[in-house]
């Protein structure tokens, strides 16, 4: 004997009659209810299939002090897998297989529908990354003159860039040297980065050579598109770092040896266009000047707080490109006071200045596993 609830019994009978093609019986079962008559005794329902369905009157049950009514329906199912009475319907294996297949199709349809709805909801809720607009008008000296400059214009056609190095937790805790990573933000649009810088170097070389290791760093925009890269070979006394676009070198920064001063020469192709002469020690401002001593740009190394400076290498650099034409400002840049320069740098020259900022971080402000103040850990 099997026990079924009212709803389960009706569903099972309808499914049985539909599978057997008996539509009239299915309608009869759907429309008539053998459970409507609640007046005592045992009621018998004889369907066309000849199933004997017995309904027992309701019983009062007590559970945890609360009474509820439970109704039970019992009927006998004749499981005839081989011969038998022809008047008795056969609920054989084939019938149950068909019922199982039908239920599986319904479940698959529900799962597919749920996945589609979830996908639409997820796509609706996830924000889409966008490249912040440029803060300087790309006209005059900032107008791209080559296909290489067109590629880097979305990152460098800006008056101020904030370059922040990520915290290297393995280096901080274990002294294990990791690849350097930087986030580039436009000061006019601080809510979203405009680019990122990621070093690619050999694991063993990082642990053995430390600051003198060779590496390649890729500069990308906010969407992850490669713009250009910097290449820094192994050095012993003075360092050099190269800026390349699509594998072609556009500029280089050479460091000059001095006992305490920090001197860099900036080249665009084979022509030197600027020099940096920093007095060293406590001075963290690196001014880019032309041959006449006029200011072209400036790199400031910011103080991020006692904890950051003592225990981490996570430096922050502000690159000020400035502008000579105030009418070239666009958007929020009109409300920011900018550096006065003799002339705006071209996009290729700005790429070399950004390369200089990466070299400064590795030459002077990377302690790499030691605890101490950055400017006291300078090694020549």
Features:
alpha+beta; Phospholipid scramblase; about 375 residues; single chain; 8 helices; Scramblase; four-stranded antiparallel beta sheet; elongated; disordered C terminus; about 25% helix; twelve-stranded antiparallel β-barrel
**Strand and helix order:** EHHEEEEEHHEHEEHEEEEEEEEHEH
The helicity comes to 25-40%
The averaged pLDDT comes out at 75
Give me the side-by-side strand order of the main sheet: 7-8-9-10-11-12-13-14-15-16-17-18
Secondary-structure content class? alpha+beta
- The overall strand count is 18
Strand content: 25-35%
How large is the count of helical segments?
Answer: 8
Task: Sum up the overall morphology in one term.
Answer: elongated
Low-confidence segments: 1-9, 17-84, 123-127, 370-380
Family: Belongs to the phospholipid scramblase family.
Organism: Camelina sativa
Protein name: Phospholipid scramblase
Pfam family, one: Scramblase
């Amino acid at each position: 004997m099997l026990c079924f609830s009212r709803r389960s019994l009706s569903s099972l009978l309808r499914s049985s009659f539909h599978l057997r093609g008996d539509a009239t019986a299915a309608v009869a079962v759907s429309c008539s209810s053998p459970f409507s008559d609640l007046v005592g005794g045992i009621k018998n329902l004889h369907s066309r299939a000849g199933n004997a369905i017995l309904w027992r009157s309701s019983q009062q049950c007590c559970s945890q002090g609360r009474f509820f009514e439970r109704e039970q329906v019992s009927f006998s199912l004749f499981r005839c897998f081989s011969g038998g009475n022809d008047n008795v319907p056969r609920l054989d294996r084939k019938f149950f297989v068909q019922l199982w297949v039908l239920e599986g199709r319904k479940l698959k349809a529900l799962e597919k529908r749920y996945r589609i709805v979830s996908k639409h909801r997820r796509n609706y809720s996830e924000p889409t990354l966008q490249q912040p607009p440029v803060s300087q008008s790309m006209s005059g000296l900032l107008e791209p003159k080559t296909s290489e400059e067109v590629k880097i214009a979305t990152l460098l056609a800006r008056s101020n860039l904030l370059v922040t190095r990520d915290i290297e937790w393995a280096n901080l805790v274990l002294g294990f040297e990791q690849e350097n990573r930087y986030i580039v933000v436009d000061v006019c649009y601080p809510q979203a980065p405009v680019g990122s810088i990621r070093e690619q170097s050999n694991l063993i070389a990082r642990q053995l050579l430390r600051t003198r290791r060779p590496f390649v760093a890729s500069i990308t925009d906010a969407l992850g598109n490669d713009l250009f890269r910097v290449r820094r070979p192994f050095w012993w006394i003075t360092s050099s770092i190269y800026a390349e676009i699509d594998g072609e070198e556009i500029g280089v920064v050479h460091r000059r040896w001095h006992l305490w001063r920090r001197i860099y020469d900036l080249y665009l192709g084979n022509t030197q266009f600027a020099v940096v002469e920093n007095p060293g020690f406590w001075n963290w401002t690196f001014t880019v000047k032309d041959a006449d001593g006029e200011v072209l740009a400036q790199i400031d190394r910011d103080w991020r707080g006692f904890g950051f400076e003592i225990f981490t290498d996570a430096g922050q650099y502000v690159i000020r490109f400035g502008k000579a034409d105030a009418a070239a400002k666009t958007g929020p840049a009109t409300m920011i006071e900018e550096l006065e320069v003799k002339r705006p740098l071209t996009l290729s020259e700005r790429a070399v200045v950004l390369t200089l900022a990466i070299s400064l971080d590795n030459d002077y402000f990377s302690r790499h596993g030691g605890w101490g103040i950055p400017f006291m850990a300078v090694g020549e």
